[in-house]
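Help needed: design a sequence for this.
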């Protein structure tokens, strides 16, 4: 499949008819990168079926290889590229990890490096150096691991000394749930495991912490939440596991929001019966905008009338990842839409609140920046530039608005390569009502 380039703006296609499409999506970033990391620390080889193949997943694969894991491709079922076979090895130092803009890599991998013997340097994209990392650096130091860093952010070097004792630790995960997940994921390999407590003004993205605990438990690790903001992971082996990665339900957001924007029906294949992915909240979120949905034989069917989009007030602290899509719908709504609880998304790929306010304002909309969210008031929109700011979810938010507003020019649709490189082709296929197999497109 050919992927978009970074050099030319992408004119978001407008919808000329109600949707009637079946969509298949590639694997979940959050599940893929957890499965890769735990497989690299496991007690035998693991195979991932239908793993995500994207920039963030490649960064995790390369990072784990640098830290000593063997990772190779194996023939898969064809639909989403090859499977991955992960052969764990002793954690080694002496390398460099380029985290790109991947929060999972920059938060999770330093704790793996700490298990090794020798220095590992970490850096990333220019914007990665602005993302919150202080709790990674401070936690490592509190655990007795040396970190060379001018500032508590990228770039830095972790000086592993062959192991981590673990024990009791308190951190402030207000800026990112990934600080909690990072510690829990490596903790089975700490001598004493970890007894972790969060103390801070808020705890975002709790479903992602539940996903981490579930990923550990499915590999035989004794891991549990012991209170609202406390967790315990016992030391012990991580079992190897062959598993199929679920489709990325967060990347389903723009495709399902498209039904609200345009009307009609989208059928999403591979909807899990039970999942820890935060995208499971989409049916309820889209219901607030008038959509109906049902699950039938492993598919999610979302339908909407295509009539005026109602207003809504939503606290999205648990699902910040979905907020750019919901804000895009807000820009098309006929009554005010207020999304709060997403202050932490200022530390995502870009300051998402600022980016959405600026982009919507540039199209003539009325978007008001709140300390921890956005309020959008109804206003007619006109075509114009839409900055992606290296952010896959800001790019796809522009695509949602462009369904109804001709001439929305996303400056860098290739930003979607972070988690869904096939986005432009899948979007076009949805609009054409074609059933696109991403491997063949
Ligand atoms: O652990 C994970 O896989 C993620 C956790 C969340 O991070 P924050 O808690 O920083 O929002 C989410 O937004 C991110 O896309 C992925
Ligand atoms: C915040 C996100 O990514 P990251 O894993 O880089 O934090 C995201 O995908 O919305």
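Sure. Designed sequence:
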């Amino acid at each position: 499949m050919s992927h978009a380039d970074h050099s030319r703006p992408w004119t978001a296609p407008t919808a000329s008819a109600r949707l009637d499409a079946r969509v298949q999506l590639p694997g979940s970033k959050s599940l893929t990168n957890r499965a890769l990391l735990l497989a690299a620390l496991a007690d035998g080889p693991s195979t991932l079926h239908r793993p995500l193949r994207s920039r963030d997943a490649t960064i995790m694969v390369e990072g784990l290889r640098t830290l000593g894991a063997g990772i190779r491709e194996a023939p898969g079922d064809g639909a989403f590229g090859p499977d991955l076979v992960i052969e764990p090895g002793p954690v080694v130092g002496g390398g460099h990890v380029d985290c790109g803009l991947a929060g999972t890599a920059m938060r999770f991998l330093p704790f793996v490096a700490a298990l090794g013997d020798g220095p590992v340097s970490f850096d990333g994209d220019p914007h990665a150096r602005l993302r919150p990392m202080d709790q990674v650096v401070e936690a490592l130091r509190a655990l007795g691991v040396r970190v060379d860093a001018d500032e508590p952010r990228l770039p830095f070097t972790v000086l592993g000394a062959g192991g981590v004792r673990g024990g009791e630790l308190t951190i402030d995960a207000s800026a990112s749930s990934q600080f909690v997940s990072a510690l829990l994921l490596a903790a089975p390999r700490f001598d004493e495991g970890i007894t972790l407590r969060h103390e801070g003004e808020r705890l975002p993205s709790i479903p992602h912490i539940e996903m981490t605990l579930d990923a550990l438990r499915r590999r035989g690790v004794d891991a549990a939440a012991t209170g609202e903001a406390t967790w315990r992971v016992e030391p012990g082996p991580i079992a190897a596991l062959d598993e199929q990665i679920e489709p990325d339900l967060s990347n389903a957001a723009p495709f399902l929001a498209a039904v609200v924007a345009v009307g009609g029906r989208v059928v999403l294949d591979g909807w899990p019966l039970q999942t820890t992915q935060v995208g499971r909240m989409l049916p309820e979120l889209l219901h607030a905008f008038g959509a109906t949905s049902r699950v039938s034989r492993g598919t999610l069917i979302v339908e909407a009338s295509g009539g005026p989009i109602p207003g809504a007030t939503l606290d999205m602290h648990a699902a910040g990842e979905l907020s750019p899509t919901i804000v895009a719908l807000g820009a098309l709504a006929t009554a005010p839409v207020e999304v709060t609880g997403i202050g932490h998304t200022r530390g995502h790929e870009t300051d998402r609140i600022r980016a959405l306010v600026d982009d919507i304002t540039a199209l003539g909309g009325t978007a008001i920046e709140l300390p921890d969210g956005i309020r959008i008031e109804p206003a007619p929109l006109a075509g114009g530039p839409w900055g992606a700011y290296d952010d896959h979810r800001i790019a796809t938010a522009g695509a949602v608005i462009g369904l109804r507003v001709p001439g929305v020019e996303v400056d860098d649709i290739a930003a979607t390569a972070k988690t869904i490189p096939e986005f432009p082709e899948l979007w076009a296929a949805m609009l054409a009502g074609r059933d696109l197999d991403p491997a063949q497109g």
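The longest helix spans residues 29-40.
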